[in-house]
Every structure is written in C-alpha cells, then in structure tokens.
Amino acid sequence: MGNHFGRVLATAALAWSVTVAPAGAQQAPIKIGVPLPLTGALAGGGNQILWGIQYAAEEANDGGGLFGRKIELVTEDTKGEPNTSATVAAKLATQDKVDAFVGGFGSTSDFALLSALQRYEPIFVHAGSSSVRLEEGFGKNDWYYHVYIWDYHRQKAAVNFFKSIPAVKTLAIAYEDKLYGTDGSKFTQQYAKEAGIEVVMNEPFRAGTPDFSPILNRAKGLNPDVLFIIGYSGDNIQIARQAEQLGARPKLLVTQGAGEKRSDFGPAGDNVVVIDLWSAKQSTPGLADWVKKAEAKRGGEVVSSAVQGYVAMKTLIDSAKAAGSWDRAKILANLGSMTFDTPYGQVAYAASEMGGKHQLITDKSMIAVQYKPDGGQEVVWPAEKAAGKITYPAR
Predict the structure, then answer these.
(1) Which in 15, 67, 72, 307 has the greatest CB count within 10 A?
(2) What CA–CA distance (Å, rounded) separates 359 from 366?
(3) Contact by Cβ (8 Å): 163, 195
(4) Phi then psi for 76, rounded to 5 degrees?
(5) DSSP assignment, residue 363?
C-alpha cells in the first residue's frame, strides 16, 4: 500500500435508481444492497464481512459522502439459505431499488442470489464465496466483480503450503457437503495428486454439525501428516475443540479461514494453521497504520473476512469517485481498469484462469497463519510474508 491508503473515497450504485434533487435540496442517498448471512451456520463470516463494508462506507460518509450524497447500506439477512437469498435479491432490486450490491457469502446461497439478480444486471461486487460454479455461471458478466479467491486459487495455495513442509506426505480432508466444500475437496485432491501427496481420507459433513467425532476418530486412526478442514468458521472452531476433547489432535490441523478469530478457538487453537487471504501480521507496506486505525474503530481484532468486505466496498467507492458522477457505465469501466490501494496492497481486477472477467485476489496473495500457544499468531508461509517458522508436528 502507498501513502494514499486510508484516504476517504466514495461509493457507487445501480443505474436505474438515480434521483436528481432540486437545487438546494438534500439529495437522496446512494443505496447499496448488502445481502449477507447474519444468522445461521454462516453468520460468523457474514457479520465480519458486514463490518468491513460498514467501515468503508463510514469512511466515505465522514468525508461528505459521494458527490454530496450519503451512502446508505440496505442490509438483508440471507441466512445462508438459497430460497431466502433469492427473495432478498428480488426485494433489494425491485422494492428497495438499490443502486449497487456489495456482499454475498456462502456459495450455495449466493448461486440462488445471483440467479435471481442477473435479469437486472446490477453492479455487483462479490465479497465472499469461492465455488468455481459461481465463476462459471456469472463470472463473464460485465456487471459482476469478485474479490475473494476461487476454490482453485485457495486449494492450490493450500497444497503449496503442504509441499513446503518436507515431512508432509499424507493428507486427510474433511469438507462441507455443498458447493463450497465439494469444489474445495475436488481441487485439493487434484493438486495433492500432482504434488505427490497421498489423500488418505476425504469425508463430507454438513455445515453446523454439532458432532465431528466420527471424522476425528477416523483421522486419528489414519494418523495423516495433515488434517485439512474445508468448512465455515463455526465448523472450524468446533472441529478444533472436539479434537482437543477427544485427544484426536493430528500432527497438523489446517483450516480455511472463514471469519473466525484466534480468540474464538482458545487453547484448542494452539498450533492450528489457517489458510487465508490476509493477516494483520503480514508484511505489506503501510499496513500497520491501517490496522491500528481499524482496530481502534472496531474495538478489537480485525480479521481477514472483514477486510474482504472493506475492499469490496472500497473498490466500488474508488471507482465511483473516479467517475466524477453516478454513471453506471463509467463506474463499471473504472472497476475493470483501475489499480486499488488496499490492505492487500495494490491490486486490480483481472481475468482469471477459468474465464472470469473480473477477479481481484488469487493464490499469489494467500498466506498460512499459525496460532501460537501464547494466544498470538504468526504468518509462517510464504517466506516473503512470514514472521516466524511453523511448528511441525504440532502435537
């Protein structure tokens, strides 16, 4: 990040609802639809993303808004359910007449959300969800921009991390049984095979399952070098806690970051590794100042999924401000052509390997963070971003 990071920038919105106010009148706000799972099994990540979106909008509003108009967030709870997501999409587009969408988290529910929205061709900046089926279904649309990595980005990074540990030869996988987990499992197996790592277990589970003892006991019997969990935050925390309770801790437990914090795990998180997009501890120029300001605003730790929401909103804000007025075509063109100064560093939307037109983050940005027994955490991979060395085996 450069010296420009942290500037107040403004936000953007969907063309059909522009209102021209009389001279001297208070102009109508720019309304941004924010569909996210705020209750249910995916609520952990959904609420973190929401905070990031709110923080970026507040920064802009504190600087006077956009073109003299305030940003108004119209937030709806998708509950992580496909039917609810489709209903929410229709409400935001037709009843609330929002000017743009920022949000989305949960691949299965977001597929329903986007299917319901595509007839309207809104400006949609997608903060979360990684299933490649979303990229296949919506990634070629000019109105669709995707911040979060796709499954193949994350699973490629995860396997590259496993390869960086010489002792890792076997891998057990436990995965969420819908789009997010099944696609993640498929790509992990593919890349593991290419890397010469043997997959000794590949077990599905339902998000929100209270009892992971069958999976953990099977993994304990197989004694893999890594147990890799492809789940949402509640699942990741529950698995770590039950592994501790059952005495079924593997040599290394690795999860995919989904909104959880180090403090959520307690002692059960000791030496757990999280594959993620971002850490407050990573080496990125200018990051420390942003983290200090954001944590003061939050009153606590800012996690990776909150940054997803912040960056999604901020890229829309930057693009709208550069357009000089609320102009849908110009905003979309700016989203696709500008370089953005963010907590990830300087990034730009670009074509992805599998045909998506507007992808922001890839496996090149991913990191591995290990939770330490002292309650802290360290980036342990890749070497250029690492602050410490991995503890392996972890038990």
Answers:
(1) 307
(2) 14
(3) yes
(4) -130, 140
(5) G
Distance CA 140, CA 220 (A): 43
Amino acid at 361: I
Among 16, 89, 13, CA closest to 57: 13
Pairwise CA distance, residues 292 & 344, whole Å: 15
What tokens does 29 get?
């706000």
Torsional sign, CA 256, 56, 363, 270: negative
From first to last of its 395 residues, the chain has per-residue pLDDT tens of 544 444 333 333 333 333 344 444 468 999 999 999 999 989 999 999 999 999 999 999 999 999 999 999 999 999 999 999 999 999 999 999 999 999 999 999 999 999 999 999 999 999 999 999 999 999 999 999 999 999 999 999 999 999 999 999 999 999 999 999 999 999 999 999 999 999 999 999 999 999 999 999 999 999 999 999 999 999 999 999 999 999 999 999 999 988 888 999 999 999 999 999 898 887 788 899 999 999 999 999 899 999 999 999 999 999 999 999 999 999 999 999 999 999 998 999 999 989 999 999 999 889 999 999 999 999 999 998 888 999 999 87
Strand ranges (E), the chain: 30-36, 71-77, 100-103, 124-126, 144-146, 170-176, 198-205, 226-230, 253-256, 273-276, 340-342, 345-347, 367-371, 377-381
| Residue ranges in 139-176 assigned as alpha helix (H) | 151-163
Contact (Cβ atoms closer than 8 angstroms) between residue 79 and residue 37: yes
Tokens coding 346: 């300087």
Exposed / middle / buried, residue 273 (Cβ in 10 Å: 0-12, 13-18, 19+): buried
* Widest pairwise Cα distance in the chain: 74
- Put simply, whether the predicted model's pTM sits higher than 0.85 gets the answer no
Q: Which sign does the torsion angle of CA 111, 115, 118, 122 carry?
A: negative
A 10 A CB-CB count for 169 gives: 14
User: In terms of Cα–Cα distance, which of 18, 216, 269 is closest to 123?
Assistant: 18
The CA-atom distances, in angstroms, between 383 and each of 5, 283, 288, 390 are 25, 10, 19, 11
